[in-house]
């Protein structure tokens, strides 16, 4: 007998070799129908794999992310089986589950288009109804190589070459067998609703020198109603696409002459960014931050010292050479090395710490052209970056204050649903990281304790740490349920060592500070993109780049409209005049599409009476007001918004 520990702490004994499905059936038949996979000692596994020793388990259903990923991973194999049936000779790359669904990269004997997807879906549905079991089999490396060499599938042969003998498994469903580590559903019959969503090109293993494969994306659900809800969400997402809204609201633009992934901020977008930056500057000032400014380039040796060149140099913009053959510069990929040099500007004492250096610093990274996406994936972006240099006894307290800043920002901008992801080292691949095990363990412990003391809902992800330290990433769900990674906080013992940063302690001896890297927005570009889609372009009044537009009903009233605009702008109300030679109905419609919070319509009556006719976004006509009364009304609304989100004063030391 073995002891099985459940999530609630309860323990039951089962015969050695019991499976997850048998455990589920022992609890209730209904649970056995709903369970998709099992977590055994924090590793997700198939339900039909035997458990040979005492273990802590969790039975995974659709509500669990691991359950969804087992569901979607099996769906990718179902897609592959359908393709094998419809396109004999197809070769297979990889087919993972992703955040929403799955994809498979395939080398097809003939091209396909999105018009072919319904036929592939139909074949998948047909195969799913046969309730094919997913059968796992361990194979030797020699057998695996022989299998795929005989098939002429060079992609699988290449993948097998990277694997260790004794770690290789095949999964078979129906007529399809794949190189795969799992986990999978017990059978394909659980897949009730299927939608293949798109086709894209993808270089094999992400290398532009390799062949371009066809990537087929899809998503599946255990109920058709879930698919219907998802498709409705996709339609809403199309309306909220920040690239579409960015054009319509005239916020930003991409020019091929400037270069891919290099956004140009238009006047309204620049005003929006400026307000976000000023908002964060105000918060930072209350928490004792000092603003710094660093160049857009740095000597290559700076990034060699920091470790960024070794980790990212090959995939970054290449060095800039000057007439001096001994000089090599890089476009700045990170702000932290520059801030380390600011710390070294003069000797530091334990009394000086913590030091908090903040910068809206623009950095550059060479993303593959196929991975660029609006403002969410660009080559030049501005981080709301800060680096805190702290003593060991200050670490947890400072880390918790940064959490407070992130939570305040989320509250301010109505990001109400989020999870804090504790991103730790991959325990099986430590060569990816720099620094000693002792420092990593201390850094990871500080993050875990701080998150716990703040009562955050957290998940732990191994292998997601930065190369120099663990981090706390904030995963936010937007208004239509999509998940985004925004703010991040990182603990770093390693850069202070690499840059030989010290402070003189109370014992008059040199000591090493600890760095906290922190970006509550993440980057201005990505944050604006997510905020645009979250709000649908309808920003809070205090943040809106343009709060009011004055609409004269004819050219005769342009002068009065300008008078109204000047009066409001003098009261710090962001106002413009739409004096186009268009009918008033067209002006109202156009400006409502621009999501302007207030439209002020002026004609003969308003000019004679010194009033404006007020129309509010989403609420329609609000009646006539004097200019003074409207200004007081709007300012009161802004003040009410700001008062509701104003943070408590914080000590500046």
Write up what this structure looks like:
The chain is α+β, with helices and mostly antiparallel strands and 653 residues long. The protein contains 20 helices and 35 strands. An eight-stranded mixed sheet has the order 18-22-23-30-27-26-24-25, with helices on both faces. A five-stranded mixed sheet has the order 2-1-7-4-5. The longest helix is centred in the first third of the chain and has 22 residues, at 65-86. It is globular and about 90 Å long. Mean pLDDT is 91; it is low at 648-653.
Layout of strands and helices, then pairs:
Blueprint lengths: L1 E4 L5 E4 L3 E2 H8 L1 H6 L2 E4 L2 E3 L4 E2 L3 E6 L4 H22 L4 E2 L4 E2 L2 E7 L9 H12 L6 E5 L1 H11 L2 H8 L6 E6 L2 E4 L13 E11 L8 E10 L2 H17 L1 H7 L3 E2 L10 E2 L1 H20 L3 E2 L5 E3 H7 L1 H5 L7 E2 L6 E4 L4 H8 L11 E10 L15 E11 L4 H18 L4 E8 L12 H17 L4 E5 L8 E7 L5 E10 L1 H5 L4 E2 L5 E2 L2 E6 L4 H12 L12 E5 L5 H13 L4 E3 L6 H10 L4 E5 L1 H6 L1 E6 L3 E7 H19 L8
Parallel strand pairs: 1-7, 18-22, 24-25, 31-32, 31-33
Antiparallel strand pairs: 1-2, 3-6, 4-5, 4-7, 8-10, 9-10, 10-15, 11-12, 12-13, 14-15, 16-17, 19-21, 20-21, 22-23, 23-30, 24-26, 26-27, 27-30, 28-29, 33-34, 34-35
Q: What is the compact description of this entry?
A:
This protein has 653 residues and is an alpha+beta fold.
């Amino acid at each position: 007998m073995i002891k099985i520990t459940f999530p609630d702490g309860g323990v039951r004994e089962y015969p050695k070799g019991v499976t997850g499905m048998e455990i589920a059936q022992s609890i209730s038949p209904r649970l056995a129908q709903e369970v998709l996979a099992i977590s055994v000692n924090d590793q997700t596994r198939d339900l039909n794999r035997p458990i040979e020793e005492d273990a802590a388990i969790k039975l995974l259903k659709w509500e669990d992310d691991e359950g969804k990923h087992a569901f979607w991973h099996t769906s990718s194999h179902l897609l592959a089986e359908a393709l094998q049936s419809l396109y004999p000779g197809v070769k297979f790359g990889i087919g993972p589950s992703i955040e929403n669904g799955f994809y498979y990269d395939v080398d097809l004997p003939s091209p396909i288009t999105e018009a072919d997807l319904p036929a592939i879906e139909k074949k998948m549905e047909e195969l799913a109804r046969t309730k094919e079991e997913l059968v796992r089999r361990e194979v030797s490396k020699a057998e695996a190589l022989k299998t795929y060499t005989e098939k002429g599938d060079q992609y699988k042969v290449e993948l097998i070459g990277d694997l260790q003998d004794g770690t290789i498994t095949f999964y078979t469903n129906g007529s399809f067998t794949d190189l795969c580590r799992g986990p999978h559903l017990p059978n394909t019959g659980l897949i009730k609703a299927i939608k293949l969503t798109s086709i894209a090109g993808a270089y094999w293993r992400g290398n532009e020198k390799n062949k371009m494969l066809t990537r087929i994306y899809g998503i599946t659900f255990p109920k058709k109603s879930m698919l219907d809800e998802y498709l409705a969400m996709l339609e809403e997402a199309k309306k909220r696409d920040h690239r579409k809204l960015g054009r319509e609201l005239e916020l930003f633009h991409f020019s091929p002459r400037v270069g891919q992934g290099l956004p140009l901020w238009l006047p309204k977008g620049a005003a929006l960014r400026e307000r976000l930056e000023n908002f964060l500057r105000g918060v930072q000032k209350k928490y004792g931050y000092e603003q710094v400014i660093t160049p857009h380039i740095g000597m290559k040796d700076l990034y060699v010292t920091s470790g960024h060149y070794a980790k990212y140099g090959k995939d970054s913009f290449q060095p800039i050479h000057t007439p001096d053959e001994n000089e090599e510069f890089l476009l700045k990929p990170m702000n932290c090395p520059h801030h380390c040099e600011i710390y070294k500007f003069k000797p530091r004492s334990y009394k000086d710490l913590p030091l908090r250096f903040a910068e809206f610093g623009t950095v550059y990274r060479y993303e593959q052209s196929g991975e660029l996406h609006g403002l969410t994936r660009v080559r030049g972006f501005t981080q709301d970056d800060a680096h805190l240099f702290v003593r060991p006894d200050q670490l947890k307290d400072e880390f918790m204050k940064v959490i407070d800043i992130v939570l305040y920002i989320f509250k301010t901008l109505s990001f109400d649903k989020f999870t804090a992801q504790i991103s730790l080292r991959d325990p099986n691949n430590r060569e990816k990281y720099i620094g000693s095990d002792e420092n990593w363990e201390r850094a990871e412990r500080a993050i875990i304790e701080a998150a716990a003391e703040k009562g955050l809902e957290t998940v732990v992800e191994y292998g997601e740490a930065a190369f120099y330290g663990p981090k706390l990433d904030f995963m936010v769900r937007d208004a239509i349920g999509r998940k985004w990674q925004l703010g991040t906080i990182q603990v770093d013992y390693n850069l202070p060592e690499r840059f030989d940063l010290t402070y003189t302690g109370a014992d008059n001896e040199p000591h090493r500070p600890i760095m906290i890297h922190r970006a509550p927005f993440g980057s201005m570009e990505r944050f604006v993109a997510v905020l645009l889609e979250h709000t649908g372009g309808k920003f809070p009044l205090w943040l809106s780049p343009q709060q009011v537009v004055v609409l004269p009903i004819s050219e005769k009233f342009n002068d009065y409209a300008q008078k109204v605009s000047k009066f409001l702008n003098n009261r710090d109300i962001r106002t413009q005049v739409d004096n186009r030679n268009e009918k008033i109905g067209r002006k109202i419609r156009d400006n409502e599409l621009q999501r302007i919070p207030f439209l002020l319509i002026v004609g003969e009556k308003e000019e004679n009476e010194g009033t404006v006719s007020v129309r509010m976004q989403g609420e329609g006509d609000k009646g006539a007001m004097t200019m003074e009364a409207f200004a007081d009304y709007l300012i009161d609304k802004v003040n009410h918004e700001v008062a509701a989100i104003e943070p408590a004063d914080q000590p500046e030391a």
